[in-house]
Write a structure and sequence with these properties.
The protein is of the alpha/beta class. The chain has 14 helices and 13 strands. The protein has helices at about 15-25, 35-50, 60-70, 85-90, 95-100, 115-120, 150-165, 175-180, 185-190, 215-230, 235-250, 255-270, 300-310, 330-345; strands at about 5, 55, 75-80, 100-105, 130-140, 165-170, 195-200, 210-215, 275, 285-290, 310, 315, 320-325. Bound molecules: ligand TLP. The site of ligand TLP has 15 residues, from helix 3.
Length: about 350
């Protein structure tokens, strides 16, 4: 039985081409700047995102942390969404390691923070206040259903930041999903950010690695922060080789993941006892719920029923579930999943 793993796009395995590139990669010591494969990956990344420089980091979490630590000093404040990964899922890294104060404001259901909310969160010059330094956006917005922020919104947030003398960081873990969904060059989404992080190891299927991008000056400083965190990786060209394949070959196909997610969502909307807002599914992430007045089944029963049929998903709270489509999920797997869900919900 094929296991259909819909827990995350982080579960993707490297493609055969990635494995080949990894085994043939030319290597060197990256802390000396001498790994040619990493240097090439960083060049491609900077070029694709329209930034002066880029740097390979072990994970998205470390990438975001490096950016906040590089932009902010102790006691500085970061404005970010209450549903953002940086606030919700990064173990409070910016506070724990940087003494940085997170100022959270509400993410609207479409993933955006209201510009008026951001504006009123910015502190004035007062000895009582932390100093606001950075605004963080997340595109696509994971906990708001993989929703997409359009370039106009990102530009307006950046203009607001600039007006107040602040910096803008973009958690672009899935920025290529956003660009593919909007059918635009990713540069339109990254142009207004002072720094950005994107992941190679999610929908793009590389086994490890994320990239931090920004001005040459920022990335030079960020290299120092990466060293502090122990993220200098020596012959990591073996990883970078897969990252190059990810950027050269795996971006356009994200559209398939989006179609599969939409079909999965539409199928779920037709199953009795489940509820989903299909209009919210813009990329590869879907959330659905067990309907409250029809709770003949517990979360545990739903998970077990699906697991027995080889299907894995995440239970993110009472009656609330997430599925993520990716390279290892075909349209046939979507049909299989829907059949299994229907059976489980019928108690078959
Ligand atoms: N997200 C993971 C989990 O941590 C929840 C997932 O399965 O979705 N930013 C965003 C928006 C992310 O979704 C993630 C990972 C990260 C940063 C962190 O990346 P990694 O896992 O490489 O540290």
């Amino acid at each position: 039985m094929k296991i259909i793993d819909l827990r995350s796009d982080t579960v993707t395995l490297p493609t055969p081409k990635m494995r080949e590139a990894m085994s043939n990669a030319k290597l060197g010591d990256d802390v000396f700047g001498e790994d040619p494969t990493i240097n090439r990956l960083e060049e491609i990344s900077a070029e694709k995102t329209g930034k002066q420089a880029a740097m390979l980091v072990p994970s998205g979490t470390m990438g975001n942390l490096i950016c906040s630590l590089t932009h902010c000093g102790r006691g500085d404040e970061v404005i970010l969404g209450n549903q953002s990964h940086m606030f919700y899922y990064e173990a409070g890294g910016m506070a724990a390691l940087g003494g940085i104060h997170p100022h959270i404001i509400t993410n609207q259901p479409d993933g955006k923070m209201l510009l008026s909310d951001i504006d009123s969160a910015v502190r004035g010059d007062d000895v009582h206040f932390p100093r606001t330094r950075l605004i963080c956006l997340e595109n696509t917005q994971n906990r708001c259903g993989g929703s997409v922020l359009e370039p106009e919104y990102c530009d307006s947030a950046a203009a607001l930041a600039k007006r107040h003398g602040l910096l803008l960081h973009l958690d672009g873990a899935r920025i290529f999903n956003a660009a593919v969904a909007l059918r635009i060059d990713v540069k339109k989404l990254t142009r207004s950010a002072d720094s950005l992080m994107f992941c190679l190891s999610k929908g793009l299927s590389a086994p490890v690695g994320s990239i931090v991008c920004g001005s040459s000056e920022f990335v030079a400083e960020a290299r120092r922060t990466r060293k502090i965190l122990g993220g200098g990786m020596r012959q990591a060209g073996v990883i970078a080789a897969a990252g190059i394949v990810a950027l050269e070959e795996m971006i356009d196909r994200l559209a398939e993941d989006h179609i599969n997610a939409k079909n999965l969502a539409v199928g779920i909307s037709r199953i009795d006892g489940l509820s989903i807002d299909t209009s919210k599914v813009q990329t590869n992430i879907i959330y659905f719920d067990l309907v409250e007045d029809n709770r003949h089944m517990t979360d545990e029963q739903l998970l077990t029923g699906l697991n027995e049929r080889g299907i894995k998903l995440l239970n993110l709270g009472p009656a609330h579930f997430r599925m993520v489509t990716h390279y290892d999920i075909s349209s046939v797997d979507i049909d299989t999943t829907l059949t299994a869900l229907t059976e489980v919900m019928k108690g078959a």
